[in-house]
Amino acid sequence: MGHPRLSSFAMSDAFTARHPRLQPVSRSARRMLRTVMVLLLGMAAATGLTACKDKAPVEAEVLRPVRTLVLESADVNLVGEFPAEIRPRVDSALGFRVAGKILERRVQAGQEVKRGQVLARIDASDLRLNESASRAQLAAAEVDRKQKQADLARYGELRRKGFISAAEFESRRTAAEASQAQYEQARAGLSVQTNQADYAVLTAPADGVVTSVDAEVGQVVAAGQSVMHVAGTADKEAAFQIPENRVDQVRGLNTAEVTLWSGGPPMKGVIREISASADPSTRAFAARLRLIDPPSSVRFGMTATARFAGRSAQPLVRVPLSALLRQDDQTWVWVFSPESGVVTRTQVRLTTVTDTEALLESTLPARAEIVTAGVHLLREGQRVRRLETAAAPGSASTREVTAGSAPRASDGAASVISNTAAASGAPR
Known about the structure:
The protein is α+β, with helices and mostly antiparallel strands. It is 29% helix and 33% strand. It contains six helices and 24 strands. The strands form five sheets. A six-stranded antiparallel β-barrel has the order 2-11-14-13-12-15. The termini are far apart. The relative contact order is 0.18.
């Protein structure tokens, strides 16, 4: 039996002879092949490990935290507060009733005046001359009247004796009547000229204060031209504006409490008038409150607040402004379901709005739970995580709510609600 290695070489040569395309591989080539295969296996292993490392586990759904509030209906005292300004009931623009040149002005703006006090004078020289002429005409008319009456008496005697005809007597009587009419005309003309001369002096029609001066000494003014404004101090009022959605409510209350921004005791006010049409610029209705026995410290132009109060006709729900969402020209809240943890957008109806709260009609289910913060970040059917639950403010039987007026009546009470304000509030 031959050597095993020689036998293997012989078999290899025989196999190569039968398959001429297959050539023997050298030892160096086999080493290089093994090296390449090792490198490829290493790269594949490294790639697999990297892929395993980059593949992160699937995270669970992140629930947005929300703060909620449990609603409770209650009877409330609706209170409407409106900014007001103290004004006089009568503010007269005074002027001379005749034309002329101003010779004197005796008062200044802000000065208090009394009824009948002289405020200013104009040059009355021409007016006095006209008065003298009228007085002379009256004297002439009186002389003529007396003469005609004496003639009528004599001709009456002659008529009774039959010395003159009836036509002559009627002519004399007609002349006497004409002279009497001319006398009356002259006397009326003198009264007019006397009044015209008196109109050269401007006096205060009532106790008041001079609010403005519109003409100066030396200025020639026309009849009726404003020279100064005098506000009567007898009646003081609070002027304010009512949004169009609150007019009927305020009209029904009729009385209000007026407080000054500068302080002092509150005053009672009674509605004297409400404008029949809205202001074209603000779309609100102008109103006046007559102040009952205001103290002397109340001055015109002061800032005040008119406060109306009245019991609500039905139970209302109080919510913070941050819980309201304004979309599609409607007001909504997010109702939270404790069972499923999802929120549902629900439309609500506003009754009134305060600086921090809103009053809603009781259209939501009893003890409904609503979201009070971050309402503009939620979507329909979203699952959320509740942070805390608070009881609705004013859960007692009767609470008082103060409501401010809207900037524009066309926006309504809900105009103060915005998505930005909704994200910044918190339950009270």
